[in-house]
Amino acid sequence: MLANQARLDDIPIPPGLTQPQRAQAAQMLDQAFFAGFRLVMLACAFSAWCGGLAVLLLLQEPRPA
Questions:
Q1: In which domain, by residue range, is 42 found?
Q2: Domain contains 43
């Protein structure tokens, strides 16, 4: 994750901004990256949980009558 944070610097920030605006824009890009990362990780965790639940429910051994 931290390795990809350096790639955020590749996103161009408009040159007409003042230094405080540039700093705020860079901070907003960082926040957007981490918010997206968290959302994807939550979706992956939820999918893994659903898959585990499906395995528990569908692959049970039949009980003798």
A1: 20-59
A2: yes
Which tens digits make up the pLDDT trace of 48-63?
Answer: 999 999 999 998 877 7
Please, which residues have CB within 8 angstroms of residue 29's CB and are 6 or more apart in sequence?
8, 11, 13
Give residue for tokens 């981490």: 34
Six-digit token string for 10: 């590749």
Prediction pTM value? 0.62
Evaluate whether residue 2 is within a structural domain. Answer: no
Number of domains in the chain: 1
Closest listed residue to residue 4, CA positions, set 25, 23, 29: 29
Nearest one of 28, 4, 6 to 17, comparing CA atoms: 28
